[in-house]
Every structure is written in C-alpha cells, then in structure tokens.
Design a protein that fits this description.
The complex is a heterodimer of chains A (247) and B (459).
Chain A: E1 2-5, H1 9-14, H2 16-28, E2 32-34, H3 44-48, H4 52-65, E3 72-74, H5 77-86, H6 94-101, E4 103-105, H7 106-113, E5 127-130, H8 134-139, H9 155-160, E6 167-168, H10 184-187, H11 189-205, E7 210-213, H12 216-228, E8 234-237, H13 238-242
Parallel strand pairs in A: 1-2, 1-3, 3-4, 5-6, 5-7, 7-8
Chain B: H1 6-15, H2 17-39, H3 44-60, H4 62-76, E1 79-83, H5 86-99, E2 104-107, H6 111-115, H7 118-123, E3 128-131, H8 134-141, H9 158-168, H10 178-195, E4 198-201, E5 205-207, E6 212-217, H11 221-226, E7 231-237, E8 241-242, H12 245-260, E9 267-271, E10 279-285, H13 289-293, H14 309-313, H15 315-320, H16 331-341, H17 358-362, H18 369-382, H19 388-401, H20 404-420, H21 423-426, H22 432-436, H23 447-455
Parallel strand pairs in B: 1-10, 2-3, 2-4, 4-7, 5-8, 7-10
Antiparallel strand pairs in B: 5-6, 6-9
Helix pairs in contact in B: 2-12, 3-12, 16-18
The chains are: A alpha/beta (247), B alpha/beta (459).
Chain lengths: 247, 459
C-alpha cells in the first residue's frame, strides 16, 4: 500500500524521532512510504486563530504536496483533524476534497485501514498514562469520552494493549484537556500552564512512569510543565512505543 | 468601552491558589455527578437529540409560539409586556412597580435581569431590591456580579462569605460555619418577604400551549417570594418558549441533571394565573435575541437552557473563574453569546478556549459550542479585532509556512537556535512559553534532514 507521510512542523523541528518511528512502523506493515520534501504545515495555527486568509497559502501548499495519494498519514491528531474537518480557507476542488478525506492520524490508519492488532516486536515494561489530545478524542473520535453516554471504545489503548509489559494507570481525569491548545499556550499562558501542571500531577499521582500519546504537541507542553515542576515523568509518542522503543 | 483581557484576569485568579484549586475541584465534582446521573439514563443521548430538535423547531417558528403564548397567558389573567431591549425591559418593570406604589422588591435569581442591568437601574430610582437566592444574595452584598449562572458565588470560600456577611449583615467575622452563615442570612432576609410589595422571578420555560411558565429552583425562595406580595413580575427571554406542556418533561429531566447532577430541582413551579386579588405580569424580552436568531452560524446558541454544564466541564472556566470573562454570561456559553452584544469588548473571549470540545459534548441541547467559538475567531480576525501582536504573528507564520524554503530555514535555525538563546531571554516575562514551562531541547537534526541523509530523496 502506498502512503504519503506528513510530518507536522513541530515534529519535524523538535521530535524527528517521532517521524522516524512513524515511517519505520508503516514500513513494517508493508507500506511504501513517500515523504514529499516540500511539505511544511497543515495551516492549523493560523486557522485556529481565526486567520483564514493567512492560512490560505499554507493549506494550498499542503493540498498540492499531497494531491493524488489514497492515504496520507500523520503522527498528529490535531493536524489530521484540521485537514479533514477544518481546512476550508482554500477552494474545495475535487482534488482538495480527496486530500482532506484521505488524511488520517497514525492510530486511525493502523486501526481502521490496516486493521493491525499485533505488534510482536514491541515491549514496553512500564506504567503508562495514556493522553489522547482533544482533537484526536472528540474531533477524530478515536475513543469514547466521559461526557457521552455510549459504549466504551479506545483505539490507541487497544493498540497499546498488544504491547508486551505495558501497564496502564488511570488518572483521575483521563480526558481533561491538558491546556496546550496551539496559540492558546502562549496567549492564555496562565491558564494553559495551570492546566498542564494539573495534568502532569494527575498522571503522577496515578503512578505513571510514562505518558504515551498520539499527540506530540500536548506532550511538548506537558513535558515542559513536568520538567519545570521537576516531576520524574517521561514522555513518548505512541508511534515509538508501537515501533518497539523500550523506554 | 474597554476590551476584556481574559488572560490578564485569569492570571490574578490563579495567583490565589487555594481559591483556584477549590473552584476547579468544586465544579469538577458537579461535572462528575452529572456523568453519574446521565449514565443512569440509557436514553440520555436520545433525550439530548430530542431536546435539541424541540428547541430548533420552536426557534424557527418563534413568532407563532410567542403570539400563542401571549394570547393564552392573557386569557389566563396574566398581563403580557413586550420589551425590545434592556432599557425597555427595565422601564416596563419600573412602571409596573410605580403604578403599584411598590418600593421593595424580593427577587429570585434571573440571568436575564442581570443581562439587562436592572438592579442598578431600579435602585437609582428608589426601589430596594433583595436577592433571595443565597448565592446571588452573597454576590449582591459583596457588590459583585454572579460568577456562574447556576452557582453565583462558587468562586468564594466560606471564609470570604463570612467576611462579606460580617461587613454587611453583622455576623461574627471569625465564624465561617456554613449553617451559621446560611441561618444568619435567612434571618436577615425573611422580614423583606413580609415587607415587599412585589416579587420577581425569571423563568426556565414558557409554554405556548398553556400560557404558563415554569421556574426551577432549589431553595424555595422564589415560591416564598411570589406567594406573599400581591404582585409577581416574571422576566422571560423570548428563547425560553416551548410549544407544548408535553415537551417540558424532556427538559425537566435534563436541566438539573446537567447542572448539578441531581435528578430534578427541589422545586419546579408552574405559574398559570395570578392568585385571586393579585397580579401577574410577564415581560417578554428580546434584547438582541432576534438579531442572533438571524445569524446563520450562531442562532443555535439560543437553544441554551442555562444549565451551566458547559461551564462546569470547561477546563479554562474552572481555572479562570466567571468574573474573568467580564460579562453576565461566562464560560463556553458566554464566549459564544457575549460577542453578539459587543464584538470589540468581548473579542478576547473566543480565544479563552483550547477548542477541546467538552462543552459541546455535555450540552443537553447539543449546541455546537466549540465550533461556534472557532467561527467567532474568524469573524474577530475579519473585523480587525485581533490584538496587533497576534495578527502580526499569524501573518508572519502564514508567510513562512507557505514557503518550503522559508520554512526550512526557520525550523533548521530554530531547532538548533532555541538552546543557544541565553536563559534570561527564553525565560523573561515576554516569552510566555518559558515562564512556567521548559522549552523542548533541540534535536541533532530535523526529521527532513534525517530523511534526506538516510533515505536520500523522496518525491
């Protein structure tokens, strides 16, 4: 299966290991992975700030880079959510609509498209707090939430459940937002930091050694909060765990 | 009118750590109770859909239902008044009071009268008003607006209440025992029920079919108020209409479960006609609602039944407090309603959100709150109401992120560069990220650099 890999700007710049794990994981499952070299960003930072006209050219570039692929995969739920549900600053041509429709977050792609359930090479003998970002949770609906009365499901947890030695711990508020929120993190810094501090403290009291997440932007924020508070918590992207990182 | 600066106000709120942590925990407890009682109802999600559909139907036939209500209520013996805006509402209430020589008014909680800023208007014209809801009374005595639409003084600890009562009604400042404070307030307020010549309520629902309205309370204060004096005035927003009495059950089942996690409010009073020898006046208030009904993306906010569930679940509201929104309506519902009153003044509010969507998921009438927040941001940007620093940041980001060449130069320099910045620059007060968080360490290379080196190419 041919797949185009989108590595979001902040992953490209700060967490290349997450891009590498995603690439290797897709290849383990027999995907032929293209990485269009002119890719930058999906347009979300500008669009989430209301600046549709500033988002336009970036969205157009994204659509151009990824035109023609049946599957576009990214290790970031909020980017996938932006592309699929909110990339409206540009004209909605059939090609743009196809790019939007075909974009998936990594867990969705593994769980729903490849339908993989086994990761025989993966072993992560640690106590893990799972953090699913809000766009991944309530936008992409990768798991049931505590607000909705519905049968429980959780795609990231189901995949991680196949990893040897991994033990989940449950924080008091598993689906409370951690306060990253894109530009919210700097323009509403007091609340953002307070939410981040509360989030990592909740994982800590639950006994987590690692926070594992499909959302590296939330992790970047939480990690920064935990480091400042000198909490002995470690952070890792779900792609790395599923690709066999031992921690 | 100055702009509300939510970030600045929230910073002050968070500084009082005990208060902030209590506030968060108290409201999260309400959210948890709401989860428990909603999960006990297997058809909860169907109820939400039904409630939403009933409200959407009513709002899209609102004129007809309002006229039906007026006709029936008048036939029942009520007097129905129409107020185009807050000023008309306040004048109507004043005229009714003056024509009855009423100078003391006991009032139960009503967000609408707060929205209309009725209390100062009437007080300036010689009317004494006593709020009878305990939380609202605390706020009145402290000369502060309510910080939450259901629990108005939730941001106060009992020690704060003890101070307010000691200053205003003469309690012992050292005694913050809750039964003592509640009883003292009750003793102070009771004589007003007997002295008042008029009582006022809001309404949770008004029924077109029966010409009646419904007031849901937990303290008994509204009923005590309206059953003593010979004059009852009810202020009702025009969006409170329901077509038929049979629709009421859907909403009564959801209102208190969503608000407080209790199956129903302690008291659900139906008002259909005045007592013999008494008068009952209803003021139907528009105050911007018709205009909002005409807004394609935002009219859904009129479905709101003011349960406060979106506030209780909102992680930003819980950590910034209702007063930080600088408006009658705070929290997620306030964020989408307030800009309809004054876009410039409330232009920071739609950014007081992480767009996490929890508000939309708990809303009993399925208002797409976080999607409306997203839309408001676009309108605020289009109408040039963004702060200059954000506008310029986004313009620059859009320019860099739409150019592969500029983007590569930026990330390759920044990834390497942040670590090279001296700590005083990274952590100075102007760098918001670094104030309470560490900056991510720079990797040896970007992903793209790794890819080109190790996989040599790509498309």
């Amino acid at each position: 299966m041919k797949v185009a890999l989108f590595v979001p700007c902040y992953v490209d710049a700060f967490f290349p290991e997450v891009g590498i794990a995603t690439l290797e994981l897709l290849e383990r499952f027999g995907c032929t992975v293209d990485y269009p070299l002119d890719q930058t960003c999906c347009g979300q930072p500008m669009a989430n700030s209301g600046c549709q006209s500033d988002a336009h050219d970036t969205e157009a570039l994204f659509a151009k880079n990824f035109a023609g692929y049946d599957h576009i995969v990214t290790p970031s739920g909020s980017c996938a959510h932006h592309v699929r549900d909110q990339m409206t600053a540009i004209e909605q041509t059939p090609a743009v609509q196809a790019v939007r429709r075909n974009t998936r977050e990594l867990v969705e792609f593994l769980h729903d498209v490849l339908e993989v359930r086994e990761f025989p090479w993966a072993e992560f003998p640690h106590k893990v707090g799972l953090h699913i970002g809000c766009a991944t949770l309530r936008g992409l609906r990768e798991a049931s939430t505590s607000e909705i009365v519905e049968p429980s499901f959780n795609k990231p947890a189901r995949l991680l459940g196949a990893v040897k030695g991994l033990e989940f711990v449950r924080p008091e508020r598993p689906d409370e937002c951690c306060g990253f929120g894109g530009t919210f993190s700097v323009f509403e810094e007091p609340v953002s930091a307070k939410m981040g501090q509360d989030k990592v403290a909740d994982h800590k009291q639950a006994g987590a050694e690692y926070i594992v997440s499909p959302d590296m932007s939330c992790v970047m924020h939480q990690k920064g909060c935990a480091q400042r508070a000198e909490l002995p918590l470690k952070f890792i992207h779900i792609a790395q765990v599923l690709n066999g990182a031992r921690g | 009118m100055g702009r509300v600066d939510h970030a600045e106000a929230s910073s002050k709120f968070i500084e009082a750590k005990d208060h902030a942590d209590f506030h968060d925990k108290r409201l999260w407890d309400l959210r948890k109770k709401r989860d428990v009682v909603s999960e006990a109802i297997p058809e909860w999600e169907q109820l939400r859909s039904l409630a939403s559909a009933i409200k959407e139907h009513t709002l899209t036939h609102l004129g007809d239902y309002l006229e039906a209500f007026e006709k029936k209520a008048t036939a029942n013996g009520m007097v129905v008044h129409w107020a185009r805006d807050a000023a008309e509402h306040n004048q109507i209430v004043l005229d009714i009071l003056e024509s009855h020589q009423a100078t003391i008014l006991v009032k139960s909680k009503s967000m609408l009268t707060d929205e209309c800023e009725m209390r100062p208007f009437l007080e300036n014209r010689g009317i004494e008003i006593v709020e009878t809801d305990l939380g609202e009374r605390i706020q009145q005595l402290d000369d502060e607006p309510p910080s939450h639409i259901v629990v108005p003084a939730v941001h106060k600890l009992r020690g704060d209440v003890a101070k307010v009562f000691a200053r205003t009604i003469g309690t012992d400042p050292a005694n913050s025992d809750i039964p003592y404070l509640a009883e003292s307030q009750r003793r102070h307020t009771r004589p007003y029920y007997l002295k008042a010549q008029a009582a006022m309520t809001g309404a949770n629902f008004a029924i077109a079919e029966t010409g009646s309205f419904v007031v849901c309370t937990n303290e008994g204060n509204a009923d005590l108020g309206v059953n003593l004096p010979p004059l009852h005035i009810a202020s009702i927003g025009i969006e409170k209409l329901l077509p038929k009495i049979e629709h009421l059950g859907v909403f009564v089942r959801m209102l208190s479960r969503s608000a407080l996690g209790s199956p129903i409010t302690q008291i659900t009073s139906h008002f259909r006609a005045p007592r013999p020898g008494a008068e009952m006046h209803v003021v139907l208030v528009d105050n911007g609602r018709s205009e909002r009904l005409g807004m394609e993306d935002f009219w859904y906010s009129l479905k709101c039944i003011r349960c406060g569930a979106c506030m209780n679940t909102c992680p930003v509201y819980r950590r910034s407090g209702g007063l930080s929104y600088g408006s009658t309506y705070s929290g997620p519902i306030g964020v989408i309603i307030d800009p309809t009153f004054n876009l410039r003044k409330y232009s920071s509010l739609p950014f007081a959100s992480t767009l996490n969507g929890s508000c939309t998921s708990v809303c009993p009438v399925k208002i797409n709150i976080h999607e409306q927040i997203y839309k408001w941001r676009q309108i605020i940007a289009e109408r040039h109401q963004l702060p200059m620093v954000k506008k310029e940041a986004m313009r620059a980001a859009g320019k860099i992120l739409s150019s592969p060449r500029l983007y590569r130069a930026a990330v390759e320099a920044a990834a390497a560069g942040i670590e090279r910045l001296p700590r005083f620059m990274v952590y100075n007060p102007f760098n918001a990220w670094g104030r309470q968080r560490e900056v991510p360490a720079a990797p040896a290379s970007t992903f793209r650099q790794w890819y080109v080196k190790n996989r040599g190419g790509g498309r």
